[in-house]
């Protein structure tokens, strides 16, 4: 399934000064048909009621899904998110660690659709997201 490999270290370095890096998102595993990432929940991630902000869940889902999409295309191609939706199912408290697992729903020539499930550290499903990416020729510069 994967046409390009991304090491965990490359992922971390690429995102060090971008939103995923600033939120502490870490790629933790790439399996034969899935990828896994984690995000801690601390003061950077909460809404006014002290719970994980839903936007942070969406950032985690889109980051992981976009990387999966990129690993499924030939070099020279770019993957751009065109739609994401998320259902927030359970609250996540400060101090928890959210784990996301991404699997393909469809990998087409010009569109990819991914399902990303986020769980709290106790295994409770906290969010389900679906990401659609479009595949384009890369435009560097």
Automatic annotation (TrEMBL):
Annotated ranges, domain Thioesterase: 49-127
GO cellular component: cytosol
Pfam families: 4HBT (PF03061)
Gene3D superfamilies in the cross-refs: Hotdog Thioesterase
InterPro entries cross-referenced by the UniProt entry: HotDog_dom_sf, PAAI_dom, Thioestr_dom
Record keywords, A-Z: Hydrolase
Listed GO MF terms: 1,4-dihydroxy-2-naphthoyl-CoA thioesterase activity
Family, as annotated: Belongs to the thioesterase PaaI family.
Protein name: PaaI family thioesterase
Species of provenance: Siccirubricoccus deserti
């Amino acid at each position: 399934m994967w046409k390009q490999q991304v090491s965990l270290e490359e992922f971390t370095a690429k995102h060090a000064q971008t939103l995923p890096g600033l939120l502490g998102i870490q790629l933790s595993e790439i399996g034969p048909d899935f990828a896994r990432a984690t995000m801690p929940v601390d003061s950077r991630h909460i809404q006014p009621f002290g719970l994980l902000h839903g936007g942070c869940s969406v950032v985690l889902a889109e980051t992981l899904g976009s990387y999966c999409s990129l690993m499924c295309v030939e070099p020279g191609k770019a993957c751009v998110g065109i739609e994401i939706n998320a259902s927030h199912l359970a609250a996540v408290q400060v101090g928890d660690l959210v784990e996301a697992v991404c699997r393909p729903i469809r990998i087409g020539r010009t569109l990819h659709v991914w399902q990303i499930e986020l769980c709290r550290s106790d295994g409770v499903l906290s969010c389900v997201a679906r990401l659609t990416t479009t595949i384009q020729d890369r435009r560097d510069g």
